[in-house]
Amino acid sequence: MTDPNYSLFIGAYDDETAAQEDFATVKALDDVSVVAAIVLSRDEEGKVSAKEHGGKVVGKGTGIGAVAGLVVGLFAPPLLLSGAVGAGIGAAVAGIVKHHEQKKIGVDAKEWLPAGSSAIVAVIDDKYLDRIDAAVEKSTKKTNKAIDKGDFDAVVKEVEKGDEKIAEAIAS
């Protein structure tokens, strides 16, 4: 059996309620198609918060810190340092940001998560892109970007190192 190919999927919303409704549909999909997913919201002042999460990331018992760290780390690592979890959470975030800068994974957060908006950000198995696309019917725009297996594994490794600190920072 071959390793799955992953994509970073983003559905953008002007309305947080619509994002939450579509996210409920995404959560209802089987665990095979959705590796990890989260709703990110950015308030009018630019602060980013993780509203919900779902999917499996790196094993049983993985909390919102790991899910948020993974999807935010792939989506836009600078959010880990700026609004999503605050500065000073250690080597895990630095490792994600460094890997992002070297590999150019992720997308432009300002385009996909401007102030006053929300987004569903998900890591999915490429075979199931159509399921996710259909599930986020209320989004104002959508995109997906292939994730190199090495990039995915590197971000997961960094998230595993800093899961507890990332979870604490998101909660604060």
Outline the structure in words.
- With 172 residues, the protein is of the alpha+beta class.
- It has one domain.
- The protein contains seven helices and five strands; from the N terminus they run E-H-E-E-H-H-H-H-E-H-E-H.
- The chain has helices spanning 16-28, 64-75, 77-84, 91-103, 109-112, 129-135, 149-171, and strands at residues 6-13, 34-42, 48-54, 117-125, 141-147.
- The chain has a five-stranded antiparallel beta sheet, with helices on both faces.
- A hairpin with a 5-residue loop joins strand 2 and strand 3.
- Helix 2 (64-75) packs across helix 3 (77-84) and helix 4 packs antiparallel against helix 7.
- The longest helix is centred in the last third of the chain and has 23 residues, at 149-171.
- The chain is globular and about 35 Å long.
- The model is unreliable at 56-61 and 83-89 (pLDDT under 50).
User: How many strand segments?
Assistant: 5
Mean pLDDT: 73
Computed Rg: 14 Å
Instruction: Please list the strands of the largest sheet in the order they lie side by side.
Output: 3-2-4-1-5
Number of helices: 7
Give the oligomeric state.
Answer: single chain
Give the % helix.
Answer: 40-55%
Specify the biggest β-sheet. 5 strands, antiparallel
Number of domains: 1
Distance between the termini: 42 Å
Order of helices and strands: EHEEHHHHEHEH
Structural class: alpha+beta
Uncertain residue ranges: 56-61, 83-89
Fraction in beta strands = 15-25%
Overall shape: it is globular
